[in-house]
Structure formats: C-alpha cells, structure tokens
Amino acid sequence: MATCFRSFLLGSLMPLLVSGALLPAPQNITILSTNMKHFLVWSPLTALGEAVKYSVEFQGEYERDYANDSWIPIGECTGISATQCDITEDISATVPYNLRVRAALGTEVSRWATLNGLFNRVTTSLIPPMLNVMADGHHLLVELEHLGPAFEFLVRYWRKGQEDQVYEKVVRDSNTTVHLETMEAGAEYCVKAQTYVEAINRSSNFSQAQCVKATESKAFSVMFAPIFFVAFVVAVFILFLLAWKTCQLCQYSCCPNEGLPDTLKLTESPAGILNYRGEEAEKCDMSVHVQPPDELLRFWIHDAL
Amino acid sequence: MHPFSCIVVLSFLFGTTVTKERNMFQFGQCELSGVSFQELRDHFGEIKETVQTQDNRTDVILLKESVLLQTSVSESCCLLRHLLRFYIESVFKHYEATSNLLRRKTSTLANTFLSIKASLRQCLDRNIAAIKAVGEMDILFAWMRDINN
C-alpha cells in the first residue's frame, strides 16, 4: 500500500521535476551541539521516501573571506539517506561556520538550504560530567566520564563537615581511576567535578556532589585490633622465652660455670707465679701448700727471734 | 618551492616563546586564550605525513627554529601575527589539496590561524609599523650593496 502511495507520489511529482521545477530543499536545518560534538539535522522530504539523498557542505571564516566564498563537501555526508550529519571533525576551529544541505533524487537536485545564522563551537552546551565516587578501604577514588582528548576535569573534594577546606585536582586523562585522598577512619568525603575545554576556554557547571564513607574494611580492622594486639604480646613473650632457654642451653654446653685455676691465668712472668698469693688453696689437692719464699723468710726470722 | 613546505615547519612555531599560565598563553604583550596547541598539533599530525611526502625540496628550510628562538619575547606577538597572516594570505591560498580529507584538514588549520590572529590585536599599529619599515630601508640597501661585493 505504502509502495503504491510512494509510486503514485513519484509519478505525480516526476513530470514536475522533469519540466524544470526544482526538488524542494531540506527544511528546519539546525545544529545540535553538546560537549563539543556537533550534528547538523534537517527535516526529511518524507513524501519522496528513502530514495532522496542529501549532501552537506561547510564554510569557515577562512573560506568566506580568503578563499573566494568557497564551500567544502563533507565526504561522509555526501549522498546519504540519513537526515543528520556528524560535523564535529570539520567544525574544529573556533570561528563562525556556515553550513548547507541539499537533496537529490536521481539526477535532480534541490537548491542549497543554508543554516539560519552562523555556528561557532564556542556555543556548545557543556554538560556537568558523570562521576563514580568510590571508597576502596581508606582510599577515596573517582572515575570520570570519558569525553575525548579535548576535555579536562576539575575535581573538588572535601571532608563532610569541613566545607571550608576544599581540595582541587586537575585530571587530564579520564581513562583511569583517580586517587584523590587517603580518608580518615569513619569520615565521609564528598566529590564534585566540572569539565574544562581549553580550545574554547569554557567550563561546564559542577556536577552534583557525591559522598562516600570509608568502607567496612576499616571497621573490620578496628574490631579485630585488640585480638591482633593480644596475639602480638603472646608471640613476643614466647619468643623471649625461647631465646632465654636457648641461651641457657648454650651456656651449659659451651661455657660451663667452672672457673679455671688461677695459676693458669698468670702468664706475665714465671717469677710472678712464685710471688702470687691469691691462690690460698689448691682446688684439686688441698694437702699440698706451697709457701712463697718471703713468707718462709718471715717465718724463719720469727722463729729465730 | 612548494608553498606548503611552510606547513611542514609549523610545529616549531608553537611552544617556543610561549609561557602558559592558567590556560592563558602570553606572547609578549598579547594574551592568547581559547587555543589548544594539542588540538593544533593533532590536526597537523593528520596531514603531516602526506604533506611531507609531497615536499621534494628538502634542501630548503623556510622557517628556522633558531630564528624563532632568537626573537625576543616582546617581539613575539607581532612576529606570530605576521607569520599567521603570511600563512592565511599566501600559503593556504596556493596550496592545492589533492584529496577531500586534505582540503578539510587544511581548512581547519587555516580557520584556527584566523582565530589566533584575531586574538593578537595588541600588535603594533600598522601605521607605526610602516613608518618603522620605511625608516629602516637603509639597512635593506646596505645589504643589497654588500651581498654583491
């Protein structure tokens, strides 16, 4: 039925086209531009169905003022059935751009329909970034939405209740998870972020703050801390006991508690042994008593008197 | 000499006399914001290989890095403005792109140069510059005479 209707329309329009009447130009040409991604969209020529092909061209300030008012075709958007075109790659300077679209059906082409006004990428809508704030043990982590190399992020974070001390971190590579802070036990931290695009020197608004508390792993360690302490004390005691016992064993086997005879300790001069009086009694043979010569002399003198 | 050889040495133009402070670039008395050198280098990077392959006059270097480095910071604003003007009015105009992609990429560079040039308004007034140029013509004549001796 639809095919019938389309062929009827084509049949009724074709004579008009052949006779010189132009194909209607695309209408409602607008630009949707969010986060530095730009799309040109237009209303389809519904009456003619998918047989209509569209082509898009752009013109920067340079082409307008220095290159004879020329237009450059966008290869990817030449002869397409879709009614939108990704123009991000070509609108990559911060100057006013003009854009135009035309329709084609067979060999017939419409006139060019131009965008109402010029488009400068500086007007793009910058949306606050999406973030995922996590607490890994006592580490405060943040994952940022990946928006491409043109985007930087300004991350602000603070401890809940200490809003006067806000810390900042600039993140250039949003591909990785960023470590922000080592959290204090039991504290809650909040994080918010905004995007910054250097090429247009503009920032988005800040995202809603997201807060996290240090996870249970911290509480777990706090709960088991006394047990760990007791185990530590017991271990130290056992170690001390072992060391003491080992020392004792060594002492009995290697260094017995038996003194050497003093005679063996005197090595200065053989004469010294004779004069030495320290050893009153010989340990091994108590019956032998050696009198030093001067003692003998004294006895002899004493006896003679 | 291929006019686009200039583009080949384009990478030396930036990052020499630039001091960056809070996303603001300072060229002497001129302040530059809303310019991403990374983006510029990326655009150039996409056509660099193709353009350098087309350049068969490798014995000539148009833009010497040493010359740019010798330029004092106070002169960097005007030097950059004049260089950009040269690229916009002479270089891109004579460059015939061999493909649609090459044409689109050079358009991006040309338009970016226009946006940078527009920010360098504090450069010397054109009349003052003209008076200076006329006044210094004797240097030109001396050089013309000496080079033949």
Structural overview:
The complex is a heterodimer of chains A (305) and B (149). By secondary structure, chain A is α+β, with helices and mostly antiparallel strands. Helix content of chain A is 27%, strand content 30%. Chain A contains seven helices and 16 strands. In chain A, strands 3, 4, 6, 7 and 8 form a five-stranded antiparallel sheet that branches. Residues 1-20 of chain A have low confidence and may be disordered. By secondary structure, chain B is mainly α. Helix content of chain B is 60%, strand content 7%. Chain B has helices at 5-8, 37-54, 65-70, 73-94, 100-119, 126-135, 137-146, and strands at 19-21, 24-27, 30-32. Classes of the chains: A alpha+beta (305), B mainly alpha (149). The A-B interface holds A 60-63, 65-67, 72-75, 89-90, 92-95, 122, 149-150, 196, 198-201 and B 23, 33-36, 38-39, 42-43, 88-89, 92-93, 100-101, 103-104, 107-108, 110-115. Chain A: One of its GO terms (cellular component) is plasma membrane. Chain A: Residues 144-214 form the Interferon/interleukin receptor domain.
Descriptors:
heterodimer; A: 305 residues; alpha+beta; Immunoglobulin-like; 5-stranded antiparallel beta sheet; 16 strands; rod-shaped; disordered N terminus; B: 149 residues; mainly alpha; Growth Hormone, Chain: A; 3-stranded antiparallel beta sheet; 7 helices; 3 strands; globular
CATH class of the largest domain in chain A: Mainly Beta
| Oligomer status | heterodimer
SS field, number of helical segments of chain A: 7
Mean pLDDT of chain A: 82
Report the largest inter-chain contact.
Answer: A-B, 25 and 25 residues
Indicate the radius of gyration of chain B in whole angstroms.
Answer: 17 Å
The CATH architecture classification of the largest domain in chain A is Sandwich
Q: Strand-and-helix sequence of chain A, N→C?
A: HEEEHEEEEEEEEEEEEEHHHHH
What portion of the residues of chain B fall into strands of 2 or more residues? 5-15%
What's the story with the biggest beta sheet of chain B?
A: 3 strands, antiparallel
Residue fraction in strands of chain A: 25-35%
Question: Major sheet of chain A, described briefly?
Answer: 5 strands, antiparallel
Structural domains of chain B: how many: 1
- Spatial strand arrangement across the major sheet of chain B: 1-2-3
Number of extended strands of chain A? 16
Pick out the low-confidence regions of chain B.
Answer: 15-21
